[in-house]
Amino acid sequence: MIYTVTFNPAIDYMVHVEDMRIGDINRLTSEEIYCGGKGINVSLVLRELGIPSRAMGFVAGFTGKALEEGISQSGIETDFVHLEKGCTRINVKIRSGQETDLNGQGPEIDEKALALLYKKLDKIQDGDVLVLAGSIPGSLPPNIYEDILAHLSRKEIKTVVDAAGDLLVNVLKYKPFLVKPNHHELGEIFGKELSSMDEIVNYAKKIRDMGAVNVLISMAQDGAVLVNEFGEVRRCGVCRGTLVSSVGAGDSMVAGFIAGLTKGDYRYALKLGTAAGGATAFSKGLAKKDDIYELLKQLL
Fold first, then answer.
1. Cβ proximity of 186 and 224 under 8 Å
2. Which residues have a catalytic role annotated?
3. Contact criterion met (CB below 8 Å) for 71 and 40
């Protein structure tokens, strides 16, 4: 089973307006509502690719109830901790030529709720996959990813970490199966601005030397590069299409990569991940199965 953990899920309210005017009334041309959060996005795209998963994390209030129901109705198992106070956040995504996001803070997570999450994590068995993705609410300890991997370190679990900065660096000693920073995040870890493919590959190898089994680097319009567990470097170009929104593209790449490994080798996983990321970038919402496999044809 694949488990995804989203510490700060959200209902994403995406609005489109032709000419956004600050300080004035703006009439929307269209709007969409999505169940959001990086781990949840991974689960939703995995479902499109026929891979079951269980979404975990924290929900609160009427917005949390709506989010959990929406995910369940999408055919995904859920096992959230229900918080007694607060409400799951609403993120407003404004699309008016440029992308502007207004992200809520989310509810406070106390020690009692965190202990309940650990009890749920204890159910994960050898051979399962655990995906930790996204930011950490201010009410949680900043080393929570590290603590979770330490807590589960005696089990043979494949962990996937999609995070930046110290959140990522601090888990490397637990040898996560896959990490996926983008090229900007990779450079920030080492205090460098990476401007060439050779530099990106070199620092991806450093992340692998620090403990990661596989390192997947997303590079937006330049595609992706993978340094796998055998030390092999694989590159994949970008799919052709028109950018609609970058929200969820990285999460979709993670989902596609995981799904690809269940059906083939690292070469195929990289291509399916790239196609899934592209299908989301070229859509209003997350990638759909038909769009993913249509883009995959460009890469095979």
1. no
2. 251
3. yes
- E strands, the chain, where? 2-6, 10-16, 30-36, 53-60, 77-83, 89-96, 98-102, 129-133, 158-162, 178-179, 214-218, 224-227, 233-236
**Chain centre to alpha carbon of residue 178:** 12
- The predicted pLDDT at position 188 comes to 92
- Cβ atoms of 45 and 256 within 8 Å: the answer is yes
Tokens describing residue 228: 């796998």
Q: What are phi and psi of 71, to 5 degrees?
A: -65, -45
Strand partners, 54: 3, 77
Q: Measured between alpha carbons, how far is 130 from 117 in angstroms, rounded to an integer?
A: 13
Q: Classify strands 214-218 and 224-227 as parallel, antiparallel or unpaired.
A: antiparallel
Nearest alpha-carbon partner for 94 in 162, 15, 211? 15
Residues 6+ apart with CB under 8 A from 178: 158, 159, 160, 161, 212, 213, 214, 215, 216, 254, 257, 258
Answer for the pair 288, 256: CB distance below 8 angstroms, yes or no: no
Tell me the percentage of the chain whose pLDDT exceeds 90: 68
Per-residue pLDDT, 46: 97
Q: Pairing mode, if any, of strands 53-60 and 2-6?
A: parallel
Q: Compute how many other C-beta atoms are within 10 angstroms of the C-beta atom of residue 120.
A: 16
**Confidence at residue 139, expressed as pLDDT on a 0 to 100 scale:** 85
pTM more than 0.85: yes
Angle at 188 between CA 255 and CA 266, to 5 degrees: 30
What is the helix (H) or strand (E) element at residue 266, kind and residue range? helix 266-281
From residue 112, how far is each of 117, 136, 146 by CA, in Å?
9, 17, 19
Closest CA to 85 of 66, 58, 67, 115: 58
CA distances from 209 to 125, 130, 165, 171, 173 (A): 27, 22, 17, 13, 10
**What is the distance of C-alpha 220 from the center of its chain?**
15
